[in-house]
Specification:
about 325 residues; mainly beta; 9-stranded mixed β-sheet; 22 strands; about 15% helix
Length: about 325
């Protein structure tokens, strides 16, 4: 096997994408390419201190800058792009989190309108210890401090949507996008159904860590140095983004209301069991009901995202997605460090 091609991309400030779809590719890549990427944080690097309020230093809708898109040679509708996350490492020793007026799960919003005034803006700067793998929280209103373990992830990864649509990088849907699931960490493979020629893959929105649900709407946001391997599975359709780790298969669903996002993720998991693991639909429905874990990803974005995950150790020994996760794990282990 020949060594994989490695493409390094460090975008300049004016070279990010703000949507999925509607943006020309920054590069054409062959399946099997390793992408060594820098991704900027969701604020475009503009929130750097507690004085930098989002409403003053950022311009809506220019949030969630994406690195890409990448045209994957040979990708056509009906195929699946596999994105294996080799490493996700914070690019700075600090990260930012905020409250934003009319945004988040515990405040009035544009879609949950009320006479209640918006929550005030505030900024928390988290110090990252990249050696010890910790993120330091400092309270504003007393002297409480706490070190939490870093768990770097990407809030946003996706391809161009179907039907000529262009979607904001703030929106999760069937194309992927701003799913904000902590499951999107190093070591996993994300499967995305191709909707347009070349797929047009982008990613961004790095989080040093995030709780399930992303309740206030903002994680511990930071720039990332990320390495991924991109593969193409011809003739395999993936209706909603899926994730495979060494221990779990994971389906996602994004919609409003929240119960519809839940239903989508659960249905996709059932259909995955039928397609690749030999279950009948009724057996899959029963088995998943008793075995599934259902963490929330986000309950704040334009669409909410739910996750349905199932332990591989409880499943028949069958190959899923042509065994690409295991192969990409081997490729990742052989890459120079």
């Amino acid at each position: 096997m020949s060594d994989p091609r490695i493409l390094t991309v460090r975008p300049q400030p004016g070279e990010y994408a703000w949507t999925f779809g509607g943006v020309p590719p920054v590069a054409r890549i062959a399946p099997g390419t390793v992408l060594d990427l820098f991704t900027e944080d969701c604020f475009g690097g503009r929130v750097r201190s507690e004085k930098d309020l989002v409403s003053e230093v950022c311009e809506f809708p220019f949030l969630n800058p994406q690195t890409g898109p990448f045209h994957i040679e040979g990708a056509e509708p009906g195929d699946t792009v596999a994105v294996h996350f080799v490493s996700i490492e914070p690019a700075r020793d600090w990260a930012a989190s905020t409250t934003v007026p009319l945004f988040g799960a515990l405040t009035s919003t544009h879609t949950t309108a009320s006479l209640q005034p918006p929550l005030p803006e505030a900024v928390w700067i988290w110090q990252l210890d990249r050696t010890r793998r910790t993120a330091l929280f400092r309270a504003h209103d007393n002297d409480f401090e706490a070190e939490l373990p870093m768990d770097p992830m990407h809030g946003t990864v996706g391809v161009a949507p179907a039907n000529l649509e262009v979607r904001s990088a703030l929106v999760p849907d069937a194309h992927g996008g701003n799913m904000d699931t902590p499951e999107m960490r190093a070591g996993v493979t994300c499967y995305l159904g191709v909707n347009v020629e070349g797929a047009l893959l982008s990613l961004g929105d790095g989080h040093a860590r995030q709780g399930e649900g992303e309740t206030c709407g903002v994680a511990v946001e930071c720039a990332m140095n990320t390495v991924v391997i991109v593969e193409l599975l011809k003739g395999i359709a993936t209706p909603w983004p899926r994730i495979e780790s060494d221990t779990h298969i994971i389906s996602t669903g994004s919609a409003r209301p929240l119960e519809d996002a839940f239903r989508i993720s659960q249905l996709d998991l059932v259909q995955w069991l039928v397609r690749d693991y030999g279950f009948s639909e009724s057996d899959a429905y029963q088995f998943a009901t008793q075995a599934v874990e259902s963490p929330l990803a986000n309950v704040c974005d334009t669409n909410y995202t739910c996750v349905a995950k199932l332990r591989k150790q409880w499943l028949p020994e069958r190959e899923t997605h042509r065994g690409v996760h295991a192969r990409l794990r081997e490729t990742a282990a052989a890459l120079p460090r």
